[in-house]
Amino acid sequence: MKKSLIILLIAVVLVSGCTDQRPVNSSESRGVTINAFDASPVKAFNGEQILFDLEVENIGGTTARNVQADLFGVEGQWRDSMGNLVDSTLTTWGAITLKPPFAERNIPGDLRIAQWQLTTPDIPQGVTVNLPIEARVTYDYNTSGHLGIKMISQDEFRRKQLLGQDVSNPFEIVNSNGPLKLSIPDRYRNAMVIDTTSSETSEVLPFRIQIDNVGDGFPITPEDDGRIRGAGGRLQGTIDLFGPGVQFEDCLGITGGTHIDLDDANILVRLREIGRGSVPIACNVRVDKTSWANRAEDTMQFIFNIRYRYYVSQSVSVLVTGQ
Length: 323
Hints:
mainly beta; 20 strands; 10-stranded mixed beta sheet; 2 helices; 5-stranded antiparallel beta sheet
């Protein structure tokens, strides 16, 4: 009996050792990230082969699609393993999907590895040059966001003020993990007070939402729709509005209704600033005050589903000496 128990314990230990897995990495401000980009060796003579090794992982909150890796800085200089001059940017993957991590289930995000083996360029004897090579990873991503805004009738607002009750911090913002985030400028962080004492049947409330690039790369959604061609950065997706008696009033050029498709908006949403840039969205909201006849407080909700193409990059340098 004791012998059987010992054998069982040994088996459990062996199985436990075999189920070890890489840690679960997650980030609030990133999607696909470059874990490592290395060259081996980093010092070489001309005509020697260099192995470039790239490792990427999805550590954001949504699935990355059409993931593509490109090697820049090799065109017209380096040679492939067969000795042929590289005549274009070297691309791998292109249509793969990387799922996000599920920390609550101890499941890491999908990881991929790519390698390129290239021969160093022809360098004149007696000359040493530093050759930078960049790995760029491009992917389609999604940012989902929920913005809840407290709405309050003017009578209720005054009552709370007289009683000394707190009417500040009327917002709730929830973002999925990823490089783009929803935010609200400080000057617009006030409760939306509905003037139910006036004779007007509706009221327009001005509001401003901001989409910030908090990641370590850039949105580069291609643009070629027959109207405008540019460097990209256009954001796609939808904005939905929910609440008592609310509808859009001149939001991205759209008036009426509670749903906006960014592809159909009169004002295109683009995020092109280098680094941690942002783009404002002016979204005036019209409120039907007949819905507030006996209502003191309620919540207006914006639901965002933003799609975009994004890239991150990392560089490594190889020191090549001619001989």
